[in-house]
Structure formats: C-alpha cells, structure tokens
Amino acid sequence: MSPRAQVYILAALLTFLGASLTIYKHFALGFPLLPGEYRTVWTIEAKVRFNADGGPVKAALTLPRAQRNMEVLGETFSSSGYGFNIVHEDDEHRAVWSRRQASGVQSLFYQLDVHQTPGAALEQSLDLSTEVVKPMLGAREQEAVRQAIYSLVEAGRARSSDVSTFTSELLLALADTRNQDRNLIFGYYKDRSFVDVALVVLAAADIPAHRIRGLYLEDDRRRLDPEDLLEIYDGKRWVVFEPSSGTPGVPKNFFIWQRGGKSLLDVEGGRNSGVTFSVISNDVPARDVAMLSTSKEKEALVDFSIYSLPIEQQSIFKLILLVPVGALVVVLLRVFVGLRTSGTFMPVLLAIAFIETQLLTGLSIFVLILILGLWVRFYLSRLNLLLVARIAAVVITVVILMGAISVVSYKLGIEQALTVTFFPMIILAWTIERMSILWEEDGPYEVVIQAGGSLLVAVLAWWVMTNRYIEHWTFNFPELLLVLLGLVMIIGNYTGYRLGELARFRQLVR
Amino acid sequence: MQFRLPALRLPPFFRGGLVSPFKLRKLGILGMNARNVRYIARYNDRDKYPIVDDKLNTKRAARRYRIPVPDLIAAFDTQPTRSRIMKVIEPLQQFVIKPARGSGGKGILVIVGRDGEDYLKPSGNKVTALDIQRHVSNIHSGLYSLGGKPDRCMVEALVDFDPVFDKYSFEGVPDIRVIVFRGFPVMAMLRCSTHDSDGKANLHQGAVGVGIDLATGKASHAVQRGLRVDIHPDTKMPFSDLQVPDWKDLLKLAASCYEMTGLGYLGCDIVLDRKRGPLLLEANARPGLAIQIANGIGLRTRLEHIESMTLEQLEKNVEERVNYSVDYFAARTTL
User: Which chain B residues are closer than 8 Å to A384 by Cβ?
Assistant: First the structure.
C-alpha cells in the first residue's frame, strides 16, 4: 500500500474512532456537546424524627431504589452518635440507624441528589406480589359497607372494558363526593386515607394492587409528607395510577421512594415517629451531572481519563489539551498560507501565555521584552561570549526584565502586568537570540517580518484557543484529539499551492 | 475537452496580487507542499541526508567520486583553542570559514585579504582575529545549524573565480544551481549578487536569478525581485551575452552528484574556478523553488517527464543522462 493510501486510511480510522467516542459520550453518558448546558439536580432530604424512650433505639427507613427515569447522583447520611448501615432485605434497601441509649427528640437525615432523565418508562418489576388479600367485611354492621363496595365495583365494571379502565372509573367514583356508596365507605373508614380505601375496594374487586410512596419534585418545598400513588396489576403488567384524578402513568416530576413493600419507617424504642421531606432544585452544569452519574458506574472511558486526576492537574490539562489546537493553527497557516515564523511552534507557547495574560497585556509585554532583550543582546554580542553562556545571560536578563516589569507596573497600579511570569522564559531568550542573528544576517526588515508573522500566528492561535466551544470540546471530549490527529495527517498530504505562492509565482503567469 | 472552472473572484485587495492556483498548475509550477510531499519525501532517503547536510561529509564523498571541490584547509571537529585557530589562519591571505551544517548560506565568513593584523571581507570591511575566533566559537555552539545542534567548523580555500562572471556580479560570489532529478539535470540558474543584495546570492534579498538554458549554457531568462531584467542592475551588462564555459562538464559534475549522494531530488551549487573549472560547492537535499522564477517556467512538467520514464530509460550513465537532458530540456528561447 502506498504511504498516501495508508495516511488516508489511518486518518479515516482515527477520525471515525474519535467521532464515535464523542458521539457515545454525548448520547450514552450525557456529556453536553455545547458549553453552558445546565441540568436540574434535585436534592431531596428525608428527616426522620421521633421521641426516644431512653433505651436502645433502632430506626429503619426504606430507601429509594434505582429508577430508570431518575438518576441518583449521590447520597449522604447524617447520624451523629448513631451506628449506621444499609441492609438489603427482600429487594428493598433500608437505612438502619441504631444506638444503645437515646432519649428526647431525635433527628436523623438522609439526603440524595437525583437527576431526572426524561422519557424513560418505569421498569416492570417481576417480584412484586400479585397476591390479593380480601378485606374482612363479615360482621353485621359492615354489611352496608360491603354492599356499597360491591355496588361501586359493579358500577365500575359495567362502565369499563378492562382492568385499566375499571381502575380509572373506580378512582373517579371514589373521588366523587355526590356518590352515596362512596360516602358510606369513607364514613366507615374515617381514619384511612384515600389510597387505603382504594386499595380495599380494589382488593374486593380481585385486582392485585399496592401503594407507591413518593414525592412531587418542586423547588424549595419543606416539611413535605410523602404522597401516594396506586399501582395495579392488569394481568400482564403493573400500571401506575394517580389516585385523585384516576389517570394512568407516573405523573411528571414524581419521585418514587417506595414501591409496594412494607412500611416506610420503622422505629423501635421511640414514639411519635415520622418522616418529612424537603426538596430543593439546583442548576448544575450538564458535564458535572454526567461526571457524577458515570463515576458511579465506573465507566472506563471516564474512569481512565483525565477526569480521574485531581482538580489541580485537570486545570493544567485543560491548558495542555489546547496545545494541539494551537499546533493545528500553525500547521494550517504554514501549509495553506505559507507564513514564516521564528521557531515552528513558538507561537503556540506565546498563545498559551496570552491566555493567561489577556491579549493586549501579553502583546505589549512580549514586544517590550523582545525590544529590551534585543538591545541587551546587541551589547552582549560585543563581549565575545560563548553561545550557551550568552543565551544563559539573555535568559537571566529576561528574568530580570520580567521582575522589573512586574514590580514597576504593580507600583503604578497595573496589576495585569503581574501575569508576565506566564511567558516561557527560555523560549523568549531563544527568540531574542534568533532575532538578533536574523538582524545581523538579513537585516531588520526580516526581523520585523518574522516577528510579525510569529505574533500574527500567536494571536490567531490565541483567538482559536480561547473560543469557548473549542475550550469545551478539547476538555470534555479529549477523544476529539484523534480527529485532530487525522486532520493533521491529511493536511500533511496536501500538495497544492500555498496562498503565498499564488503571489510569489505571479509573474510566471503571462 | 477542457474543463474550466469559473474564474476565482478575489477581493479587490488581492486582485492582481494573486494568481489562480489552476493557472499555476497548468503551467507546471511546483509548489512548496508538492515539493516536500511528492519529491523530497519520496525520492530522498533520510539516511542519505547527512552526506549533504554536513559539508565535511560532502567533501569526503566528493573525493571518493572524484568530483572536484574547493580545497579544505582545516576542519575543527571540536571547539578549537584560540592558538589553534590562529595557527591555521595566520599564514593565509584568503580563506572561507563555514559551518559544516549551516543552512541557507548562514554563517559563512569570506576573507579576501589582509590589512596588517586585520582581515578583509569582500565588502572591504575589516574583521579582527578576535571576531574570527568568536565566529568559530558560534559555529561550534550551533548558532547557524538547524535546530541549534552543535556543529563543526571548516576552513576552505577561497575559490579563484573564473573572471567570466565578473561583469555579472557585484561584490559577490556567482554560483550556479542545478536541480538534478533521479540523475538528470532538469533546470539550472546562475545567481548574481547585486548592490541591492549586499553581495549575497539569495534571490529574495535582491540578487538576480538568471535561468540558464540546459542545452547551450546561455541565459534564457533573468529576474530580479520578481521582475524581468535584461541587464545586470549594477554593471549594466546584458545577460544575452552570458555564456557559461564548459557547460557540458558542469552538467556532468551536477549529474554525477546523484551517484555520490543517492538523493533523487537534489540541488547542486557549483562555482567556476579559473584553473580547475567547475567545483561543487555544496549539495542540497531541499533545493528552493526560486529557480522556477529565474527560468520563467515550472519545474513540475520536467519532473513528471522523468517520473514517467521506465526503469530501463533511467538506467543510464552520467554522460547519457546529461545528453538526454540537453536534448530534451532545451529552452525554447534564449535572451
């Protein structure tokens, strides 16, 4: 295979790999393609309160399970003085706080951050019991209630075609305060909630059902009590109903805490126990959400990447990842335009310095150091020093100049000039050395051309590197470097003319 | 049938300043990128570069292939002591100090005479022994070499230039550049220094580039700073009278550099010595493209012609290759 074909195949492979990793990261892991995307993260806090009797205390709180439409990003438990662990029983996760001795009002906290992923349906759980426990309605005084319940069931059955529509009808009837049967039933079950009553009636109708405890996620809500939904089994699958409206499906923003199962909270050794919830929403950068949700699953693409580095190193990498982009700018300008620069990739280093110093400050400091450095260098060249010693002398001079610029500008109140330390000193010294040789050999005109070319490339590279999209892509999708690599390889194969050559060979066209 | 693209509409700022790349392509002009990818990368093996990149190596190879070169007086492989430099240059009236790995003619110090303790440059400026010592030290530190690598320094005899070009050169060293592709000379030019170029033979500094007809050794075209000229701007001599003596010998010397270096795409810089005839000054694995401007024609057509030859046609000795080029690449007109 010819080297040219190899380049194209390799470049295509690299580009494909980089692009598909990027697409995967965007769609599967939720990394945002554009900067500035925010996601709502809900922080839900459950507060367990009870009065301890003074003896051993054990409080068990059922914890929410992983759900498809809600992504749990993190949990925290606060339990000062309590022993704490999470037990798994019957497919349920329960947080258990325990203490040998406690008295008075006790507060325990469980907090979790969730992120709503839209569109995912509630998963069908196969291990929920479909057993129906018929209500005990044998006694004489309950005869009327039994009649009322069966009349409701009959009425509902007549007006429905299947389990689902029946449940809707039944719930509507139960919500209708003009319905005499309904009022009779509620009169009997005075101390029971709507969902409790609905469960009794559904049991009478031989429909497996249970309650779902959860919360409506609304911003800045405190002391919320858990709300209930109904879930019925229609013979094939479980269907959720909103009890008061009778509509099927999980309401939007509803966070399911407990599905079926037993009690939400059990307290041993305490009285007056209860759980209240509070909810707040935060707008968090989409990338952080993606990072949190993937870090739990140990996604290899994220786990073995720069994200696993400490934050400080990450911010260094943020800068380093911009270097290839700067290099691409240099490649483009040299291959397609034919700009001459002093030192092939010196402009990239200069551009990085400009990122730290801001453009105008950076430009003026660079020009100032270059001019002063050249002036010193001209004197040094008369002292007959060895080259390495002379460049070291220029390095030291550059450092002194930087220090002087910093101090003087600070005293003058121009704090921006303090960023002068970001300039690569050795590169500056070499640039000064090369420029001074250029001056001696080819005259000041060439110095201006090359310094100007370098500065132009540096400013262009700076402009590209500070683009917020570029910054976002290089840091969040480092695999795009593979695409960049492919691109550079293809450019390396370009055999067409440079822009400069269109002017250079002008007179050959007659 | 000819496929025509609509004329490129350039902004007024560029109009007249730029030409269409399609026109350049049609004229067979070789661009820098095409030179690098299609010719240098393909025909020049990396491992052969040291022969041309280090002038001391070139000299050694030239001796083996009996190619005449300027005499080497001394070579300093390591940083020499002051007394050692003085011991070499003290008895000399004329010499040239060069970095072995210098690029673009950088770091070449030419001494044409003595003025007491001082040394004279071609421009008449005086140079002290201390300056020369510093120059040698700079060369060794790698100031003129690519990438600043430590370099070696050589002291060469000053070529006793054939006076034939005296009328076409101002203060400087006229040399002939021949592009040799797979052993065939494909294009040649004479670089004449001018007052404008400060005695230097670099075209972009204002030297005159004179395209030389491969068939006759006569000037075919001359250009200074991109503009066509007929006479030397300083000496006012018409280039139409220019004739390179021993032209065939010069071409043979250039062509034999192919065997010497093994490089497929090569630029040979040749000077004419009064007694010895053509001498190889240096060879270049990355010759520039200005030769096209000097000749007023593109290189690419000629290179592609050689590329289209069969292996059998390529199997020729130096004499046959030169004859082929002389026949095939003759200029349509001379000045």
Answer: 130, 133-134
CA distances from A455 to A162, A321, A356, A438 (A): 77, 21, 16, 16
Q: Read out DSSP for A287-353?
A: HHHHHHHHHHHT-HHHHTSGGGS-HHHHHHHHHHTTHHHHHHHHHHIIIII----SSTTHHHHHHHH
Using alpha carbons, select from A408, A395, A403 the residue that is nearest to residue A421: A403
Q: Could you tell me which of B53, B31, B26 has the C-alpha nearest to residue B283? A: B53
- Nearest Cα of chain A lies from the Cα of B211 at a distance, in angstroms, of 13
Task: Measure the CA angle with vertex A300, ends A297 and A305; round to 5°.
Answer: 115
Q: What value does the mean pLDDT of chain B take?
A: 86
User: Which has the closest alpha carbon to A63: A88, A99, A98?
Assistant: A88
CA A64, CA A62: separation in Å to the nearest integer? 7
Tell whether the model's pLDDT for residue A87 goes beyond 80. Answer: yes
CB A335 within 8 A of CB A507: no
Model confidence at A285, pLDDT cuts 50, 70, 90, reads confident
A221-224 and A227-233 strand pairing? unpaired
Overall average pLDDT of the B80-107 stretch? 86
Q: What are the backbone dihedrals phi and psi of residue A28, each rounded to the nearest 5 degrees, phi first?
A: -85, -35
- Asked if A509's CB is within 8 angstroms of B130's CB, the reply is no
pLDDT tens digits, one per residue of B20-61: 889 888 889 999 999 998 999 899 999 999 899 899 999 999
Check if the beta carbon of residue B143 is closer than 8 Å to that of residue B107.
yes
Q: In the numeric block, which tokens belong to residue A269?
A: 């050794």
CA distance to A501, A506, B39, per residue, from B34 (Å)? 12, 18, 7
Q: What are the tens digits of pLDDT across the range A6-38? A: 999 999 999 999 999 889 888 887 788 888 777
Nearest to B19 among A335, A495, A505 (CB): A505
Looking at beta carbons, which residues of chain B come within 8 Å of A441? 106
Q: Which residue do the tokens 């003087």 mark?
A: A408
Cα A363 from Cα A417, distance rounded (Å): 11
CA-based R_g, chain B, Å: 21
Distance from C-alpha of A287 to C-alpha of A314, rounded to nearest angstrom = 14
d(CA A273, CA A263): 12
Reported confidence tier of residue B1, pLDDT bands at 50, 70, 90? very low
How does DSSP classify residue B282? E
Q: What is the ipTM of this complex?
A: 0.78
- B228 at the A interface (CB within 8 A)? yes
- What is the rounded distance in angstroms from the CA atom of residue A467 to the CA atom of residue A470? 5
Q: A195-207: string of b/e by CB count within 10 Å (b at 16+)?
A: bebbbbbbbbbeb
Residue A501 at interface with chain B, using a CB cutoff of 8 Å: yes
**Per the CB < 8 Å rule, is B296 touching A509?**
no
